[in-house]
Amino acid sequence: MAQTEDTYTQLNTTDVLRSFTFPYINQSDIKVTLDGVATTAYSHVGLTQIQFTSAPAVGTAIRIYRETSDEETQATFYSGSAIRAKDLNDNFTQNLYVTQEANNEADSATTIANAATATANAADTKSDTAISTANASTATANGADTKSDTAVATSNQASTNASAAVTTANTASSNASTAVSTANTA
Length: 186
Fold this sequence. Notes:
There is one protein chain. 54% of the residues lie in helices and 16% in strands. The chain is built from 1 helix and 7 strands, in the order βββββββα. A 4-stranded antiparallel beta sheet has the order 1-7-3-4, with no helix packed on it. It has a 3-stranded antiparallel beta sheet with strand order 2-6-5, with no helix packed on it.
């Protein structure tokens, strides 16, 4: 992959100079972003260095990159005119740079897309786990509800049995009282 950009993190409040290591055709092809936002608050110093108007904030992500114009070729050839090697080379260089930049952007987009896919797959797995947990919780709640219904039925049966036992005990007590009276009379 051809080098078409340099990235830095601003480490202090005084550093305003940044170098870049890739070739370019025109100074206007050099672009800069600070934390992903384009800026023009810089000037060119020499062939491979820029100087910011003021130092970016500490921690700022700095990206210096090449964006070669693809609007028109560097040289245009007219019928009957001389073709110079320099003009051909400039056109081929422009084409090469545009291709390199497009390839790097495509690679970057693919990396981002793959990361997004991995994140989506992880979220899908977590969603499946959450659904399984919810289903298990529902089954547990349904089992508790069934046990609760069984406990209520058992409790009601016990209450009925207790009432019957009280009735039987009262009848036995009444019979015992009658037997005592009969025995006393005899």
